Amino acid sequence: MSPLSLLLVVAVSAPALAERPPPNPDPRPMGPPDPHLDALAGASEVGDWAVSLETGFPFFGARGQVALPWMGLNAVGSVNSALFTDTWALGGVSRRWVDTHRVVLSGEILVGGTIRSGDLSRRGPASQTTLRLARGHGRIVPALTLSSRHVLLTDVQEIQTAEGDIVERSRSIAWSPVASFDVGVGVCPGFAVSAGLDVPWFDPPGFSLPGAHINLIVGGWK
Amino acid sequence: MVERMITPLLTLLLGCAEEAPVYGVSFGGERLPVVDMHLHQGEWNLIPESTRRFLASRFPAPLGLIAESTAEGSLNAEGVLEQLDEAGVIQGALFAVYAPRTVGVATNEYVAEQVLVDPERLFGLGSLRLDDWNNNAEAQLADLAATLEKPGFIGIKLAHAHQHVRLDDPRFDALWSLAAATGKPVYLHTGSSPFPNTAQDAAYTDPAYFEPIIAAYPDAQFILGHLGYDFINKEVGALDTCVELAARYENVWLEPSALGSAGSDPTGANLLTAYSAMKGAGVLDRVVYGSDGPQSPGFVAEYLERSLAAMEGAGYTAEEARAVLSLNFAAVFGVEPAPL
Question: ipTM of the assembly?
Answer without folding.
Answer: 0.75
